[in-house]
């Protein structure tokens, strides 16, 4: 089940205390983006390249439908990221973060 962002998590993302990561392709990001998200294509993680962010900070992942964000969550967990959450699709993101 996808994680639903609460108000505290939204504020933490806006303040830079938590990370919102878009794991879609560059083409998808060009079509619709999220101003508070960093882009890190899940394919980079599949190839063994991970974002240079603290492994113990909250990370919230999204993609187009929720499948790739689930994969990214699993891959990050295997690399020692201890607080990664799959929020599903870009449509799950609160409007104030878009």
Explain what this protein looks like in three dimensions:
- The protein has 98 residues and is of the alpha/beta class.
- The protein has one domain: Rhodanese-like domain (Oxidized Rhodanese, domain 1), CATH 3.40.250.
- The protein is 33% helix and 18% strand.
- It contains four helices and four strands, in the order αβαβαβαβ.
- A four-stranded parallel sheet has the order 2-1-3-4, covered by helices on one side.
- The longest helix has 12 residues.
Give the topology, please:
Blueprint: H1 7-15, E1 19-22, H2 26-31, E2 37-39, H3 42-46, E3 59-63, H4 67-78, E4 84-89
Parallel strand pairs: 1-2, 1-3, 3-4
Sheet-strand content, in percent, reads 15-25%
Supply the CATH superfamily name.
Rhodanese-like domain
Got a strand count?
4
CATH class: Alpha Beta
Total count of domains: 1
Spatial shape: globular
Which fold name fills CATH's third level, the topology?
Oxidized Rhodanese, domain 1
Helicity level, as a percent range? 25-40%
Strand order of the largest sheet: 2-1-3-4
Would you identify the regions where 5 or more consecutive residues have pLDDT less than 50?
Answer: none
Which class best fits the helix and strand makeup? alpha/beta
How would a textbook summarize the main sheet?
4 strands, parallel
Q: Cα distance, first to last residue?
A: 22 Å
Summary keywords:
4-stranded parallel beta sheet; single chain; Oxidized Rhodanese, domain 1; 98 residues; alpha/beta; globular; 4 strands
């Amino acid at each position: 089940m996808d994680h639903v962002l609460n108000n505290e998590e939204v504020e933490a993302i806006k303040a830079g205390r938590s990370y919102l990561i878009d794991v879609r392709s560059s083409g998808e990001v060009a079509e619709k983006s999220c101003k508070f998200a960093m882009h890190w294509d899940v394919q980079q993680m599949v190839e063994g390249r991970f974002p240079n962010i603290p492994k113990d900070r909250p990370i919230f992942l999204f993609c187009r439908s929720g499948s790739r964000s689930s994969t990214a969550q699993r891959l990050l967990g295997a690399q020692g990221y201890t607080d990664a959450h799959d929020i599903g699709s870009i449509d799950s993101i609160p409007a104030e973060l878009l």
